[in-house]
Amino acid sequence: MAKKTGPDSLTLTYDLLKWSIPAIKSFPRDQRFMLGDRIENHILDVLELLISARYSRDKIDCLKKANLKIEVLRFLWRLSLDLNYLNSRRYEHVSVLMNDIGRLIGSWIKYVKARDEKIRQPVSPGV
């Protein structure tokens, strides 16, 4: 098995959650409980889906759902920027984190699909 050289999607999602909680505290009070809660819940959902994918036989379904949640999060964070609840430096940081998470989830999906195809291929008899 190849040695990991960097953080995985689960670690980055945990880091995103850890970073997001104090960032959301700077939102206006009414938005902290509306938009902020949506963001936190989506990140928690992604974390839960990635944990499920790690231990589940049906990894693809969990990973696709996590990928969709990441896409929704991109729009929620962008809305936070457009409403001036987040400065551009923080938005850039969260965008990089989410792009990294999305890229890692996409790679995981490709790996699982390739592995599953290899398993399904019939073994040809020797000559």
From TrEMBL:
Record-annotated bAvd-like domain positions: 13-112
Source organism superkingdom: Bacteria
Gene3D superfamilies according to UniProt: 23S rRNA-intervening sequence
Signal peptide start and end residues: none
InterPro entries, sorted: 23S_rRNA_IVS_sf, bAvd
Name by which UniProt lists this protein: Diversity-generating retroelement protein Avd
Organism: Candidatus Desulfaltia bathyphila
Lineage: Bacteria, Pseudomonadati, Thermodesulfobacteriota, Desulfobacteria, Desulfobacterales
Gene: avd
